[in-house]
Every structure is written in structure tokens, then in C-alpha cells.
Amino acid sequence: MVAIDFSGPNISKEMHVGHLRTTILGESMSMIQEFLGHKVYRINHLRDRGTPFSMLIFQLKETHPGFSKKLLFLKKLDKGYKAGSKKCKEDPEFKKKKAQEAVVQLQGEDKECLEAWKILCSITMEENYKLYKMLDATLEEWPESFYNPMLSLIVKNLKIKDLHN
Question: What pTM value is reported for the model?
């Protein structure tokens, strides 16, 4: 068994040349390993959680109340991401009270945050898969959120082994 990590794009941001490069390299290495008879896991770790992503959700709520998939496209999300990032740097209160609070809501599976998260993931991946198709790359999505159900057990085990500091 061989695990190969692909491009790992950020949700709500356009891919750049580095993502394309790692996709091409990942696909090439996968084909070689499969030719050699190995079972290959083509893993694409999507960055779909954390403060930057949550900051975007709040930024969009402010600039596009009631946003939906019909009203947004990846370029607009990318601009919103950059505007929200700038706002976090300039306004620590926004970062602390809005963006970081949204992380907690998203991790806690708040219904409104999850719905926004689904919309943003969908828009991003529709665009990304157009590029993956052009590159003839096949891969499996393993978003950061995939690991959410496992986190409490990991923390528990770290505490048991006194490795949580």
C-alpha cells in the first residue's frame, strides 16, 4: 500500500501553480506505483477548517447576507477570503469575536455554519475538478473535517500519556 498526497487546495481559494505541480507529480507517482503492482491511495487533503475559512464565512455574511451557491463563484470567494484576511489583521476584535467564534461553531456543527461550509466547498471543488479532469488526475478527497470525529479520542489518548502540553 502506498499513500500519495496530492495538491491540498484551500477551500474558497483558487488553485495556483504549486497545486497544479503537486497534482501532476502525484498522478505520475501514482501511475508508477500502480504499474509496479501497489495499491495506491491518492489523497487530496483539502483545507476546509480553521480561522481563515471561518473568517470567510463571516465576511460573506456581512457582504452577501443570505448568500447561496447561485450568487457566488470562486473568484468572488477568493476576493472575500483576501478581504477577510486583511480585516483579521487590521481588526483583532473581528478576528477574535467573529472568525475564531465561527471556528468553534463549525467544529460544533452549527447548522448555519455547516450550510455555508457546504456551499463554499461545493463551489471550490466544482472548479478544482475542472482542472483535475484536464490533468486526467484521479484522487480521493480527505478534507480536514474528515478527522473531526477522531479528535476527541486523540486528545484523550494524549492526556492519558501526558503528551497534551
Answer: 0.75
